[in-house]
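Why show two proteins at once? Because comparison is the fastest way to build intuition. When a single record is shown, students tend to memorize it. When two are placed side by side, the eye starts asking what differs. So, the first record is below.
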Amino acid sequence: MKVNGTHYRSLWWDDDKKALQIIDQRWLPHEFRIQQVDTLQDFADAIVEMRVRGAPLIGATAAYGMALAAKIDPSDQHLDETWEFLDKTRPTAINLRWALTRCRTRLKSLPEAERAKAALKLAHEMSDEDVEICRNIGLNGLEIIRKIAATKKPGEPVRILTHCNAGWIATVDWGTATSPMYHAHDAGIPIHVWVDETRPRNQGALTSWELGSHGIPHTYITDNAGGHLMQHGQVDLVIVGTDRTTRRGDVCNKIGTYLKALAAQANNVPFYVALPSPTIDWAVDDGVAEIPIEERDGREVTHIQGRNEDGKIVQVQVTPDGTPGGNMAFDVTPNHLVTGLITERGVCEASREGLAGLFPDLAEVAKSA
């Protein structure tokens, strides 16, 4: 995707500096800042502090973290220590552990002298894979939007509601939930996107920044407006992302997603989840009972960041002194509320059979593990 006319990925390797560059997302949408990640502590801080965020992007970042670890000390012990160190940074998004495990397994199969070079090559490959996965999610989701568009009057937009930011800055490029939107817009299909603010970190502002940069019509709305819009027939479909999806199709996503799914079901609005295969946790069945839900600092709830009239980025307190903030970062939407899962291999129902039908190779490996 482009920022001010220049193409960027959300992270990239600088060959001259021999270091990873990231977009520091804490300052978006008001400031576009690039940060170099030099140490393993930098990698951990980038993930914990949400300088990088979104399950696919966290996984790609972790892969480069393992590459740095292999360069510093390619021993099995150090790879294990780095795996443990980075795995603790965020507990909910499964892509983090998937990427760390994939890297460690691959590197341990090689002589130590070959590991550093192979680790960096693997990190590059995993980033490129993520781009292609998201591109194909977009193409598959495009067909859903195209079918709805065919029922519209000429020039009438397909109205899509999304929650949180499952955009290109939450992946390496394209995004998951936004990828079908980009493809539809580029194909000349009129769309309008309702963008939930997504408290407490207001990640909907990131989605608005992305869509605006691409010229896609959109409106930023409060988190509680979605049900009202659905009641009044102003939402044609919902598309959200996911940080972890169970083998039966339960979906863990940003807090508030579950409520959108309930409203969608009550108003007969299709509810789709854009799902890259590395986000499937084949070891988990019941998402509500088994997925750990990250609880973040309450200050994210009691304070809000924005730009004041002087153009400065500031934080202000919105609660009375002494009021604690509860900050459950994710919730789980049971599979029976999900119309379909949009993956890089196609669209399937949210069920064991649906996922196994599209990914028999992954399901079989998980069964034998």
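Second record. Ask yourself what differs from the first in the token line.
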Amino acid sequence: MTSVAVGAYPRLRALLRQRGAWYLTGPQELATVIGRLERLEREPCAELARPGSRLLLLDLHSQSLFNLRLAERSRGADEVSIFSPLGARLLGARVGEQVKLDGYGSGWRLLLVQVQPG
């Protein structure tokens, strides 16, 4: 098992450092990502978040908006890897869907506001 904080969105890394929480990825989480990638290949819907998509997210706690690019591998502050906790949950999500990360205090809840194909 490895920590997926590497390559995670800076805000998520900050939360991990502040709260001392770590999310470990294992075979079950990786299988979920692979299953979602296979489903995305069969469904050409532009409203689904997929690698390369630009996402507009609303943090339901702070009510702040931010943009992320969903990527196979995170290369910058505005990208999140599909293998990170946040990226894995965003992969295959639809506009209007809420994404929640457990284990960070009361959790981190985000609303997917917009998906722009990459």
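One difference worth noting in the second protein: The chain has a mean pLDDT of 80.
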